[in-house]
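Entry 14: structure prediction run for aldehyde dehydrogenase (NAD(+)). Input pasted below.
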Amino acid sequence: MLRSIVDGSPVAAGSRVLDSRNPAHLDDVVAQVVLADPATVTAAARSAHAAQRAWADVPAPVRGQVIANIGALVEANAEALARLVTREIGKPLAESRGEVQEIVDTCRFFLGEGRRLYGQTVPSEMPDKQLFTFREPVGTAMIITAGNFPVAVPSWYLVPALLCGNTVVWKPALYAAASADALYQLFVSAGLPAGVLNLVHADGTETFNGLSQALDEGLVQKVGFTGSTEVGRAIGALCGRHLQSPCLELGGKNPMVVTEDADLDLAVEGALFAGFGTAGQRCTSLGTAIVHESVHGEFLRRFAAATAAAAVGDPTRDVLYGPMLDERFAAAYEKYLGWISGGHRVLGAVGRITADNPRAGFVGDPAAGLFYHPVIVDGVRPGDDLFDHETFGPLVGVTSYGTLDEAIALANAPGYGLSSAIYTTDPKKAFAFRRGIGAGMVSVNNSTSGAEAHLPFGGNGRSGNGSRQSGMWVLDQFTRWQALNWDYSGRLQKAQIEVAVLPADLTFRL
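Run finished. Output C-alpha cells:
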C-alpha cells in the first residue's frame, strides 16, 4: 500500500484507495495507493518550507554530489526501474530504458552545475564601489507531473530544483504511483535530509485545493506543472493571483513538414516514431504531417504501409507501441476518434483492437489490455477538431500544401508551440522554417519527439508560458537573481546623480 511521504514519514491519514493497474494486463494490480486530502498537500508544503533554509545553506557543490549519488543509484537500479515503468504504464521496454537513462544524463549534467551557479561582478559607474549578482533559490517548489514519462520528466524538475537549494513537494500521476514511489526512494537514499523532498499522492481537485492553501500561507514560491493545457491555465491563474510565474509544460499539436525534396523514407520513419511511439501519448507526438502536394500521395502510401507493418502489442516485447496509459486516456481517445468526419480519408482500422476488430500481427493478447489501432487521417484542415486540437493517442493527421509559406502557416495555425519538424535537403527551407515556426523546439530531418538533458525543453502559446526545462536554462526557473552593491568609499555616493564625466570637446571641424 503506497502512501504520501511527508517529512520522511508515510502519512497515515486517508481512506480513499486507488488501484494502479498494468494497462497491458488489466487484471494485474501494480500498486494500491492511499489518496491524500488537501490538508496533507498543505502539510507537505509546510514541511518543505521548514527544511528549505538548512538545505540552501548546504554548499552547492555538496548538493551537486547528492545529485551525483542519485544518478549512480538510478543507474545501478536502471533495469528494475525500467521494467516497473513498462509494467505500470505500458511503455515499450526499450523506451522505458531510454527514459531511465534520461535521469542518469540529467544527474550527470547537473552535478557540474553545482560548481557553476555563477553570479557576476559588474563594473560600477562610481569609484570605490563594486557590484555583484548572485543566484538564490526561490524557496519551496510544488511539482505536479504527468505519467506518460513517470520518471524522466519529474527528474527534469526535481534535480535542478534540489541542486539550486530549493525543497520540493512532488505530486506524480496516480496511474504511475508505483514508479513515482520507486524514484522517490532512490532520491532520498542519495542523502537528502527529511523534508527536502516530499511525495504526495492525491487527485487533481485535492491537489489544487491543497496548493491554493499553501500559496495563501506563503509556503510555496514556485509551481511546476506538466499536463494538459486546460489544467495549466487553471494553475497559471492560481499562481498569478500570488504574483508567481509557474513553469508550465503543456500539450502539443506538433507539425511535421515534408518538402518536395525530402528523403521520403526518412520522413516516414520519423513520422512513424513521432506519431505512434508511446501510442501517441507524448506532448511531443506528431499531430499533423504537412506534405508538399507533389509528394503527398507517395508519402501517404509509404506511411500507411509502414504503419500497417509495425508491431503493436505486449510492451515487454519488440513493438512500436503498447497500450493506452490508463482507462481515462482510452476513453478520451475514443472521443477524438469521433471527430473523424465524412470529409476525411481514414487509412487502416479504427478503434480498440479486439477479436472482432483485429490487427494483423498483433503481439500478445489484445483482450488483456487497452490496445488501439494506429490511425492515419488524410485531408484534415484548419477548422477541423482533428487539426486544431491535441489528440492524445495513436492518431496522425495528414494535409498538403503548395508553398513553404503556406506550410508554415498551417504548422502555426492550431496555436500550440511545443515541438516541430521539417524534412528537407535544402538548407534554405530549413532555416526559413525555423524562422517562421512558433514552436519552442525545431528538428530538421528528425522526429518531433526526443530531448537531450542539456538542451532547453518547452513550448509557447497553448503549449506553455515560455518557461524552459533542462540544460542551464532551467536554472532561471529555480533561482532568483539578487544584486549587491558594495560601496567602500566611506561616503554616500548617489548613482545617476554623481556620475563622473570626463571633459570632452564635442565640436569637430574638418
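Notes: Residues 93-113 form the longest helix (21 residues). Will compare against the previous run tomorrow.
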